Amino acid sequence: MSTDTAPPARPRLGVFKFASCDGCQLTLLDCEDELLGIATELEIAYFLEGSSAPAPGPYDLSLVEGSVSTPEHVDRIRRIRADSRHLVTIGACATAGGVQALRNHADVAEYLAAVYARPDYIETLATSTPISAHVPVDFELRGCPIDRGQLVEVITAFLAGRKPGIPDHAVCFACKRRGNVCVTVAHGTPCLGPVTHAGCGALCPTYGRGCYGCFGPAGTTNLPALVPLMHRDGMSDEDIGRFLRTFNVTAFTAVEEQEPGTIQKEGPR
């Protein structure tokens, strides 16, 4: 009688795209050597960016890029959630609506008329929303795009059955670790570093630019303390609102709502 036993089945990974630029999926491909190790531990069952042979679910871990922006997206994300043991959203579009969520503060009909010759052919929702607005999400990985090291940490953490070790402190911590001179203090450059989630390695401040908030709000924010500095450095209330609502529109809007009137309540400058 044969004593051979079949090897244990590898966990199945699905990678899915909604309204987005594909940059966060490309980050997975850019993992290069790490991806080879991941591929030995996981069956990459569905990943149209990297394979022309997608397999149906169920999936042990699904990575979802992009925001919900069309009626079809609503039904599709529900199907993916039903097929997924764990669902992780990756990038600013999936976690906070992305750049396309700027339309949440405007008239979508006007945009359609200005951009498309036949807007009646376009199916879109009035808003662009994060995945978590429609289905339960097990973890959100921030960034525009995400950081490859953090992505590998998330995948390996779910393989090991533990919580991903992703810090939620602000970009200012990364600046201090790199020995950067504060661009706001030294040069009067508006910077969202004090309220932005770390993950980029303080890339922009390292090269003398203010942080643009690509990774969304940090775990703890203090907008009332930051707004007067931005006023001092020449930004109006409207400028500050636009500065916050770039890559992570819905996330920073939620922070503003926690501090009603933060941008408007400052005295004369």
Automatic annotation (TrEMBL):
Domain of life of the source: Bacteria
Name of the protein this chain belongs to: Oxidoreductase
Organism: Streptomyces pratisoli
